[in-house]
Write a structure and sequence with these properties.
Layout (H helix, E strand, L loop, with lengths): L1 H21 L3 E12 L2 H4 L6 E5 L4 E10 L5 E10 L5 E8 L5 E9 L18 H6 L2 E7 L1 E4 L7 E5 L4 E11 L2 E11 L12 E2 L2 E6 L4 H7 L1 H28 L3
Antiparallel strand pairs: 1-2, 1-4, 3-4, 3-6, 5-6, 7-9, 8-11, 10-11, 10-13, 12-13
Helix pairs in contact: 4-5
The protein binds 2-acetamido-2-deoxy-beta-D-glucopyranose (3 copies).
One 2-acetamido-2-deoxy-beta-D-glucopyranose binds next to loops.
């Protein structure tokens, strides 16, 4: 009997220990940035002066999406905050590689206080504009622009070697109730509406890519695109069903 009681106590202690650790507050940098910047590699300072105290069991995160096309500045969508979900990891994705149109994302989830403290972008974003220019251009010209919201104008630009088509698309990027829209036009070698290369969840950011003018021909040419369109469509259906179920139970007695 005595031994049994002792084991019970030990078990309680083991269960209690993680709770004590989790009860400590974690502090993270907090901030959101959306903008178009010249020379983002050297000029962008991602440090946020704001601090967020996290709830139990959370991580810090810092996530950035960078997009550029030849001759334009860099579009930056960045966020730092506490995160309730995710596992400690760094994810770097090159969605579209230069020449011309380029898109990368970087996401860091970590568990130490203020560990989401990246300042500069020099090691993740060093697209060499000059290198593109010296490689020569093709006879192809594409309307080129990058803007938050919609492009006011899109001048026709000679495309660099190794590109063979024009891209035109919009990205809707959302995090919680923060929404931003980005319009992108430029030369590329990617086929179809695939600036994001099918990766639409970047850290806490959700990205929706639409290319109205090419959607029909894209589906015919590219099986991958069809699959993506279908899976997104299925996801939407699932989400609608879920909302219906949740809505139904919420409005019940
Ligand atoms: C964190 O956990 C502790 C212990 O479980 C609890 O007392 C406290 O209210 C929690 N705090 C928050 C912000 O959830
Ligand atoms: C970025 O800003 C922070 C605070 O504003 C500053 O301490 C830091 O030195 C800056 N970093 C660079 C590389 O300018
Ligand atoms: C770029 O492409 C053009 C036309 O195809 C070619 O004449 C030129 O040599 C290329 N330039 C370089 C640096 O490869």
């Amino acid at each position: 009997m005595g031994a049994c009681h002792f084991q019970g106590l030990l078990l309680l202690f083991l269960v209690g220990a993680p709770t004590l650790i989790m009860a400590q507050k974690l502090f993270c940098q907090k901030g959101t940035f959306m903008g178009i910047q010249e020379d983002a590699t050297n000029m962008f300072n991602w440090t946020s002066e704001k601090v967020e105290a996290c709830d139990n069991g959370t991580l810090c995160q810092e996530t950035i999406l960078l997009i550029k096309t030849a001759g334009t500045k860099t579009a930056i969508l960045a966020t730092k905050s506490c995160s309730l979900d995710g596992t400690p990891a760094i994810t770097f994705i090159q969605h579209t590689a230069a020449p011309s149109l380029a898109a990368i994302s970087y996401s860091n989830y970590c568990e130490d206080p203020f560990c989401n403290n990246r300042e500069g972008l020099y090691d993740i974003w060093n697209i060499q504009e000059t290198e593109e220019e010296t490689k020569g251009t093709t006879s192809l010209h594409c309307p080129t622009c990058l803007a938050l919201g919609s492009c006011l104008n899109a001048p026709s630009v000679a495309c660099p070697n190794n590109t063979d088509r024009c891209y035109q698309g919009k990205l809707q990027v959302s995090e919680g109730n923060v929404n931003s829209l980005l319009e992108i036009k430029g030369c590329t070698s990617i086929i179809g509406c695939k600036l994001m290369s099918g990766v639409f969840k970047i850290g806490p950011l959700w990205v929706k890519e639409t290319c109205p003018s090419m959607s029909i021909s894209t589906r015919k040419i590219d099986n991958g695109a069809t699959w993506l369109h279908t899976s997104v469509w299925k996801l939407k259906l699932l989400l609608m069903l879920l909302l219906l179920i949740l809505g139904g139970s919420a409005s019940g007695p």
